[in-house]
C-alpha cells in the first residue's frame, strides 16, 4: 500500500497526476499513512487540509494548485459543493467560474475566474463506498487492519519508546527521498506495449480505469528515469 501511495503521490510532477482514497475504520491509521507518505515528498510541494469549505477551491490563484500534492485528512467532512469542485479538478484539471468584481470606479461587472488543478491527491475516509464518483477517478486503497499488522505497529511503537529507533536516522532517510523526488525531471513516457494491455471487460468503469492503469505504468517508468535510456 505504501509503495503504491508513493507512486501516486509523486505523480504530482507529471501532466497526468494520480489520486488515491485510503479507506479504513476509525483509528486504523489511514490519516497517519497518508501523512507519512506526504512527509517524503518535498514539503514546498505539499498542501495539507483537515477540511475544505464549500467554495474555497474556487478561490485559489490560477496556478497555485499546479504541481502540488494535496492531502485531505478527512474526506467525510467535505460538503457536496467541495466534493464537486474536487471531482472537476481531478477530471478536467481546471475550475472555471463566473464571478462579480468591482472595477476602479466601483462598478460591478462579471468576469471569468479559472483555477488550474494539475495535482495529485491522497485522501482518507471511513466510508469509501459512498464516494462513487470519486472512486472511479481514484485508486481505493484499504488499510491493513489484520492482527499481524497490528502486532507489527505495536512492536514499532514499543521500540520507538524504548529508544531503539534513531529519529535522526529516520529524518536523514526522509530528506534523502525528498531530494530524489526534487531531482526528477518531467519527461513524456512512451509505452510500446500499451496496445497489448487489456483489462477484463467486466471491471467497473473500464474507460477510466484503463487510463489510470496505463498512468501507473508510466509513473513507475518516470520514477526510474535515471535507470532508463532516453
Question: What does this 3D model show about the protein?
Answer:
By secondary structure, this protein is of the alpha/beta class. It is built from seven helices and seven strands, in the order αβαββαβββαβααα. The protein has helices spanning 2-9, 30-39, 80-92, 132-135, 147-161, 167-182, 206-223; strands at residues 19-23, 46-49, 68-72, 94-102, 108-116, 119-125, 139-142. The protein has a five-stranded parallel β-sheet, with helices on one face. Helix 1 packs across helix 2. The mean pLDDT is 90.
Query: What is the helix fraction of residues, given as a range?
Result: 25-40%
Radius of gyration, whole Å: 20 Å
Mean pLDDT: 90
Structural class: alpha/beta
Major beta sheet, specifics?
5 strands, parallel
Shape: globular
The proportion of strand residues reads 15-25%
- Record field, number of beta strands: 7
| Low-pLDDT sequence parts | none
Run of helices and strands = HEHEEHEEEHEHHH
Distance between the termini: 29 Å
Strand order of the largest sheet: 2-3-6-1-7
Count, helices: 7
Amino acid at each position: 500500500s505504501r509503495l503504491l501511495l508513493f507512486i501516486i503521490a509523486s505523480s504530482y510532477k507529471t501532466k497526468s497526476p494520480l489520486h488515491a482514497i485510503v479507506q479504513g475504520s476509525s483509528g486504523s491509521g489511514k490519516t497517519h499513512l497518508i501523512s507519512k507518505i506526504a512527509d517524503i515528498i518535498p514539503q514546498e510541494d505539499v498542501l495539507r487540509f483537515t477540511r475544505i469549505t464549500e467554495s474555497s477551491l474556487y478561490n485559489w490563484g490560477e496556478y497555485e494548485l499546479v504541481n502540488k500534492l494535496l492531502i485531505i485528512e478527512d474526506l467525510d467532512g467535505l460538503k457536496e459543493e467541495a466534493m464537486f469542485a474536487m471531482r472537476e479538478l481531478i477530471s478536467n484539471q481546471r475550475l472555471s467560474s463566473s464571478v462579480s468584481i468591482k472595477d476602479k470606479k466601483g462598478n460591478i461587472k462579471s468576469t471569468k475566474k479559472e483555477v488550474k488543478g494539475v495535482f495529485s491527491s491522497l485522501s482518507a475516509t471511513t466510508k469509501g463506498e459512498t464516494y462513487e464518483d470519486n472512486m472511479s477517478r481514484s485508486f481505493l486503497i484499504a488499510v491493513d487492519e489484520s492482527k499481524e499488522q497490528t502486532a507489527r505497529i505495536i512492536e514499532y511503537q514499543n521500540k520507538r519508546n524504548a529508544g531503539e529507533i534513531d529519529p535522526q536516522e529516520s529524518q536523514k532517510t526522509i530528506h534523502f527521498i525528498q531530494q530524489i523526488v526534487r531531482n526528477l525531471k518531467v519527461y513524456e513516457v512512451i509505452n510500446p506495449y500499451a496496445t497489448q494491455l487489456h483489462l477484463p471487460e467486466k471491471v467497473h468503469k473500464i474507460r477510466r480505469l484503463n487510463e489510470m492503469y496505463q498512468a501507473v505504468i508510466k509513473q513507475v517508468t518516470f520514477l526510474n528515469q535515471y535507470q532508463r535510456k532516453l
